[in-house]
Design brief:
The protein has helices at 4-18, 113-116; strands at 37-42, 48-52, 55-59, 64-67, 78-83, 89-93, 99-102, 105-107, 126-129, 135-139, 141-146, 149-151, 164-168, 171-176, 179-183, 189-191. With 193 residues, the protein is mostly beta strands. A 4-stranded antiparallel β-sheet has the order 1-2-3-4, with no helix packed on it. A 4-stranded antiparallel β-sheet has the order 5-6-7-8, with no helix packed on it. A hairpin with a 5-residue loop joins strand 15 (179-183) and strand 16.
Length: 193
């Protein structure tokens, strides 16, 4: 019995150290442009993308590559990211309209007719994609893109102010301020909360 407690103590002591988590920590010394990260996403190729206050950063598992306005990023402060059905990495920047990256190139309203046709407001941007690959770009005013074509005022759902969207089964929900509402396919909405 006198050997039991010291052996039990040693086993418990070793067990505590064997359970330490295997977290990795990255910061500016490792290649991040900033420690202020607004958003992160993993694309279909497995790259991790980070939106920071000093650019868009791609991490391949070993190295960071930062894209700034010199590479075509419209604004260095990236606050939201989303990858759509077509593989476009949509970028919501702080002081410019939405942009996207495809095939190693950045597209903005200056060099893309699709983006030029969108009437979006500046500032916070959110993205929502429906099962039919219709992409909603929400920025106080919304835009809908279906089959790479901008839907204009013909769809009454564009006249509703929406900050966030989510679908639960067949119900499309929207959020504006502190109001949650159900969005009907006809464009009418019913306030829920």
């Amino acid at each position: 019995m006198r050997f039991f407690f010291p052996i039990l103590f040693i086993l418990c002591y070793l067990g505590v150290f064997s359970q330490s988590p295997g977290y990795l920590h990255y910061d500016i010394e490792d290649g991040l442009p900033s420690n202020l990260i607004y958003c992160a996403i993993q694309d279909r190729e497995g790259y991790l993308w980070f939106g920071t206050d000093k650019g868009l950063t791609r991490f391949d598992g070993e190295h960071f590559k930062t894209y700034t306005t010199l590479e075509g990023l419209p604004d260095p402060e990236v606050i939201n990211l989303y990858e759509d059905f077509y593989g476009r990495l949509w970028i919501g920047c702080f002081s410019t309209k939405a942009a996207y990256r495809l095939g190693g190139q950045f597209f903005t309203a200056k060099n893309d007719t699709l983006l030029k046709s969108l009437s979006l407001s500046l500032g916070k941007v959110d993205f929502f994609e429906e099962q039919d690959s219709t992409l909603w770009i929400l920025s106080g005013r919304q835009a809908m893109i279906r089959n790479n074509t901008t839907l204009k005022h013909g769809d009454p759902r564009l006249n509703i102010r929406i900050e966030k969207m989510h679908r639960i089964d067949t119900t499309l929900l929207g959020l504006y301020g502190n109001i949650v509402f159900k969005i009907e396919p006809t464009g009418k909405f019913k306030e829920l909360y």
